[in-house]
């Protein structure tokens, strides 16, 4: 399975990237041993210029296009943003603004954020969940917010493990349920025949 981590941290090193890495490692641990997890990290800091150009010219650059394809092809996502003005960062939002509208439809997503104070923890529910619900992603029940005082605390570790377990379960469940279609598995019924079947005078439409 392919797990893509989208990190919107701006500094190096970044607490946002640290949280992203810990979440990814926890998902890997909680995935069944017979399932290999391919983890790819998308650092939005490195794509800022191409994202801006995409807004002005309508075309993604090479690196941005590769990141968009990785997100589209992923079996699951971890998305982590620093908090700016009580919401996600502009860079974080801009990346998802230039993504194809249906790219996240039905895709499991774990939302997470970092900030300087616990007062911003509601960003998960009032900003991140609505965004990814609008994009028709499947957001796992547990979001993870890490304030400065949370690092090293038992509560943060517990939330990381719980959220990672939920994402791993969704990813493995969807992968197991995904049908392998064959060309000869489909019966093509002409449109005229389908309409005829709905007609009140047809045997199948009679009551």
From TrEMBL:
InterPro entries: CE1759_FMN_reduct, Flavoprotein-like_sf, FMN_Rdtase-like_dom, NAD(P)H-dep_FMN_reductase. It comes from the Bacteria. Its EC number is 1.5.1.38. Coiled coil: none annotated. One of its GO terms (molecular function) is FMN reductase (NADPH) activity. It is an enzyme of class 1 (oxidoreductase). The keyword Flavoprotein applies. Residues 1-151 form the NADPH-dependent FMN reductase-like domain. Keywords: Flavoprotein, FMN, Oxidoreductase. This is FMN reductase. It comes from Streptomyces pseudovenezuelae.
